[in-house]
Specification:
It contains four helices and two strands. By secondary structure, the protein is mainly α.
Length: 114
């Protein structure tokens, strides 16, 4: 799967597999997940989801790949925020604190070629 493919950050479906894909700050949600959220919010019964143990190897591999691709979108959004904060002279210590890691860990993960 390409890292450049837009997909729902919740279910992992790609833009072409859903009717609508709504963009948020670093995340996306499809119309199907929005409908599920609406059901939760209105206390309607939820559809049952098959247990993971009931899925085939191929289904689990596909799920894993979709989840991993969604993580890439979130990582790109975090990297963008870090670059913007650094351009404003926000310290690595503050960035690390916000991420729940040390200053050194934040620098190692996000400094790139600063």
């Amino acid at each position: 799967m390409s890292d450049n493919v837009l997909r729902c950050s919740f279910c992992g479906k790609v833009r072409d597999d859903v009717q609508h894909l709504i963009a948020g700050p670093g995340v996306f949600i499809c119309n199907e997940c929005v409908e599920l959220c609406e059901r939760v919010m209105s206390d309607q019964p939820l559809p049952s989801f098959p247990p993971l143990d009931g899925k085939t190897d191929e289904e689990l591999l596909a799920d894993m790949a979709r989840l991993d691709a969604s993580r890439g979108q979130v990582e790109a959004a975090v990297q963008d925020r870090v670059l913007r904060l650094r351009s404003r002279s926000v310290t690595w210590a503050r960035i690390g604190e916000a991420l729940g890691v040390s200053r050194q860990s934040a620098w190692e993960r996000y400094s790139g070629e600063e």
